[in-house]
Structure formats: structure tokens, C-alpha cells
Amino acid sequence: MTAAEPLMRMRLRVEQDIFAVRQLGREVARAVGLESQDQTRIATALSEVGRVLLGAGSETDVTFTVEPYGVPTLQVTMAYSATGGTPRLAEQLQLVGRLVDTMEVDDEGAGTTVRMVRRLPLGAPALTPIRMDEIRASLARHVPGSPLDELAVQNRQLIAALNEVRAQRDDLARLNAELEETNRGVMALYHQLSDELEETNRGVVALYAELDEKSVQLRAASEAKSRFLANVSHELRAPVTAIIGLGRLLTDSSSDQLTEEQSRQVELIRASASDLLTLVNGLLDLAKAEAGRIEPNWSQVDLKAVFGQLRGTLRPLATRPEVEFVVDEPAVPTLRSDEVLLAQVLRNLLTNALKFTEAGSVRLSVRPVGDEVEFVVADTGIGIPPQLQERIFEEFYQVPGSKPVSGKGTGLGLPYARRLAGILGGGLRVDSAPGEGSTFTLQLPVTS
């Protein structure tokens, strides 16, 4: 037995056969597992198509077939054997096609064939070969009723449909009442939320006004601090420079000879004044950067020349044999930037690395990374704990317990370097671990 073997066949010859095929269609639909409404749809479609075909004056063969594989379907074929076809048949059966999933009208050739397909529900019993044989046997015993019997069945179906419609209408009325009640609750909640939102908005507006006021005050305080640092630094430079000059005169060979103790004390004065001048210059540079008074002078910078200058000027600081000072040849020949500011950033980073590296190496290199250029200053110094790696960019902050191997630290070099990096359109970050050294990376765009 194959899927194409029909369940049942019959022929429409007279008008009374329309009632019989309607009854048979309903029985077949029930047997294969279609629901009650789908049974009525199939029966109605069969009677309507049979009425149209039989009205043309020719007999019609009706075949019921089940396709149990894939998506199970009930297929009904109604073949009209007369030649010439039925005019406008597809148009006449257009409304009938809504009762089934698929309807095809083939009026080419010697006759006309109407094929209707209805999918079986997911919960329908499995149509095994044994079940198919049982359905055939049951249908073979089916005795068609009279037109009055079919009319009574239709009336019962109509009453059931009306009851269902009435129940749906009652459910709809109940749902409408619930929806109306819900809408009233939603509107009340909406008004409540609107009032609360309006109150919140007033609070937010007041908060923004307060924040704006605080921002103005903070900006004014920052400007005042910058002016203070600039003025104090400027005023201190003159006397500090004078102290250094006087100390140099006292130790000059043309001046009166000083005792050994006097010479030592004068040298202490000069060293302290030099440290103070370095701090004053750092404060002045930092104040200029914070006030936005540093304007970069953009040009094509020869990195080989910059690296050579740094190698020469910082070589005197790398006097300890335990530390190897290395400036690699630049992998990027030129870069559009400000040569003075770029050299200042790299000088600050290298000076800081040399101060805090007791043994190992301090290395400067540059590499292209996508649309950026990265200058890397790596050392094997004491390292910085992760929780303090951002604080080292704060003014005057120094890592607790860290002591420079050479020179003195002011805590201004790194903050100034980061601000200069921002002015150049880039950024400065640090990667470090205690005891493993630090790596400072200056990122600058290829074009500015």
C-alpha cells in the first residue's frame, strides 16, 4: 500500500449525490482526525464544488486520498470528464478556496480537475497502514442518509456554530469590560506617573542648575590655581636664579678663597636652589598646560634626529654601569607633530625611568600600530602597584616607599607629560608590576 492509494471513491450523477458526497466528506474528515469545524469546511467545499460541476450537466468522479508522510494532508480530487470545460470555473470557486488550505483548478486537456488539500492537525492519530485499512472498511460500510438527514445535520452544525459565536460574543463583551477597567487603571497610573515624572524633572532641572553652578565654581577655582601657580613660579624664578648666580660667584676662582666648610655650605645652597628652580619651572610648565596656553607648532618631525638628540642629552644621566641606556633606531622615519613638545614628553619619561632604575636597562623605541604611532619607554625599575598606576599622573604624587636611585623627583614630570600628550592629540598609559619594571606608552595619531 502506498500513500497514493485512495481511501474512498464515489461518482456524482444526480443532484441527490451532492448530499451523499457532503456526508462522505464529513465522515472521511472525521476518520482522519480533522476537528469539527474543519469537517464542516471540507463537507461544505465538496458540496459547493459538486453543485457547480454537476450543474454543467456531466458526471464527476470524487477521490479521497491521504498523504501520511511529511506534513499529513487530506486530498480530495473532483474530476469533471466532459470536454470543453466549465467557463470561469476558477472564478466561481474563489470563495470556496477559503475553506481549504489549497485549491487548484486544472481545466486544460479533455476535462477539468479540482484538487483540494487540508492539513491534518498535529494531534491527529498516526495514519499507519493498519489505521488506513480500518478507515477504508468503515467508509465502505457507510450508508448515505437522505437529504432531510443531511439538512438536520447542517441545522445542528449551524446551531453549534451560533452557540459558539454567542459564547465568543459574551467572552468579547467580558474582555471589553475588563479592558475598559484596565484602561481606567492605566490612565490613573499614567496620571500618577506623569505627576511623579514632572516632580522628578523639576528636581533634575534644579540638580543640573546646581551642577552648572558648581562647574562654574570649579572652573574658576582651576583657573585661579593655574594663575597662582604661574604667578608664584614666575616670581620665584628670579630670586632662585639670583641665589644660584651668587653661589657661583662665591665659588669662582677670582673671588676670595673660601674655607672648606664654607665651600661645602655654598654648594649645598646652590644644589638646593637648583632643585627649587627645577620645581618652579615644572610648576610653570604645568600651569601653562592646564591654562591651555600651549599651542602646538605642527610640522614634519624627523624622529631619527629627535632620538639622536635624546640619546646625547640624556647619556650623562645614565652613568651607572648597572643600567644600559638604549635608544633604538626609529621604525617610523617621520611624524607630523610638535618637535619640542614631543621631545619634552619623551625626555620626561626617560628621565623618570633613569631615576628609578637601579639595574637592568632603559629603552626607547617607536612602532606603527594601525592609524597610530606608539613611543615606548620600558625600564626594569622598581615597578608600580596596579592600584597606584593612575595616581602617579597626579601633581606631586610619588609612590610610597620609592626612592630615586639618582636625582630627585618632584612629582610633576609625569602629569606634565600626560597633558602634553593630550595637547598633541594622543594619550599616555602605563603598564607595570612591582619588581618587574614599567612600560610607558605614548600614543599619537599618524596625522594631526
Automatic annotation (TrEMBL):
- Keyword annotations of the record: Coiled coil, Kinase, Phosphoprotein, Transferase, Two-component regulatory system
What's the superkingdom here?
Bacteria
Q: Which residues form a coiled coil?
A: 148-185
- In Pfam terms, one family for this protein is HisKA
The cellular location(s) given in this protein's UniProt record come to: Cell membrane
Q: Does the keyword Coiled coil apply?
A: yes
Specify the signal sequence span.
Answer: none
Q: Where does it primarily localize?
A: membrane
Q: Spell out the reaction equation it catalyses.
A: ATP + protein L-histidine = ADP + protein N-phospho-L-histidine
Q: Which residues form the Histidine kinase domain?
A: 231-448
Q: Top-level EC class, please?
A: transferase
Q: What EC number(s) does the entry state?
A: 2.7.13.3
InterPro entries associated with the record: HATPase_C_sf, HATPase_dom, His_kinase_dom, HisK_dim/P_dom, HisK_dim/P_sf, Sensor_HK_Regulatory, Sig_transdc_His_kin-like_C
Instruction: Enumerate the GO terms in the molecular function aspect.
Output: phosphorelay sensor kinase activity
The entry's cellular-component GO terms read: plasma membrane
Q: Which Gene3D superfamilies match?
A: 1.10.287.130, Histidine kinase-like ATPase, C-terminal domain (3.30.565.10)
Question: Any idea what this protein is called?
Answer: histidine kinase
Upper taxonomic lineage: Bacteria, Bacillati, Actinomycetota, Actinomycetes, Micromonosporales
